[in-house]
Specification:
Elements (H helix, E strand, L loop, with lengths): L4 H20 L7 E6 L5 E6 H29 L8 H26 L6 H19 L14 H5 L1 H28 L2 H31 L1
Antiparallel strand pairs: 1-2
Helix pairs in contact: 1-2, 1-3, 2-3, 3-4, 4-6, 6-7
Length: 218
């Protein structure tokens, strides 16, 4: 983990940056702030100012550290020394910092009277994230930390590789569909993309594994 030490520290600092801004702007922020927004950008969930300024960044920092130490624990579970792709791991390390900055910008901006299409910003971020993860999934070797971690993918390397090639293509395509859908704002397409990204890898990996095992036993 020494090679990632500087990145872990730097990303941790970025996660906490909204606290600095919130502290400086404390007197100008309302006591209750919008923390959840509908697809039309209208707020439908609120939290205290203290939670937004301090609680949310600290929570994301906790999730970030779970990802950091989860990789170490995952590597120890492997019978062979197979390491997660360094690029994939770096991508994981940057997810929480980006989420923290985007949440901070959107929540503070709305609280201070700024005008922006919050749902569009979130959808663009999610779409680009899916495309980035989809690009790296086929290169991700079998491990207990990142990927489609199912009993049959972890027990059979060929099933793992096939599943991640298909899932990588699916996630990149899904991210592209979400980007295009920003222009049309069709709600059911968003749900369909998310559903496909979850269900298809699960079903495909199971079918491939059992057909593959059946063919080997004959």
């Amino acid at each position: 983990m020494k090679q990632y030490k500087k990145t872990i520290i730097f990303t941790g600092i970025i996660i906490l940056l909204p606290i600095l801004f919130g502290t400086i702007m404390w007197s100008k922020l309302p006591d209750t702030m919008a923390t959840h927004f509908g697809m039309d950008g209208t707020p439908n969930g609120w939290s205290s100012k203290a939670f937004v300024v301090f609680g949310l960044p600290l929570f994301l920092l906790g999730v970030h550290m779970l990802c950091v130490f989860g990789q170490i624990k995952g590597e120890k579970k492997m019978k062979e020394e197979r390491k997660v792709s360094s690029k994939m791991y770096m991508l994981v390390l940057w997810i929480c910092p980006l989420v923290s900055i985007i949440c901070g910008v959107t929540m503070y901006s709305y609280a201070l009277g700024g005008q922006m299409d919050i749902f569009k910003i979130i959808q663009i971020f999610i779409a680009l994230l899916f495309m980035a993860v989809g690009n790296y999934l086929p290169k991700c070797r079998q491990n207990h930390f990142i990927g489609i971690k199912l009993p049959w993918t972890l027990s059979d390397e060929e099933t793992w590789n096939h599943t991640h090639r298909v899932t990588g293509w699916l996630w990149m395509s899904g991210g592209l569909v979400l980007l295009v859908n920003i222009l049309f704002k069709v709600d059911w397409i968003i749900y369909a993309v998310f559903g496909a990204m979850i269900i298809v890898p699960f079903v495909y990996s199971g079918v491939y594994y059992f057909l593959h095992k059946k063919a080997d036993s004959q």
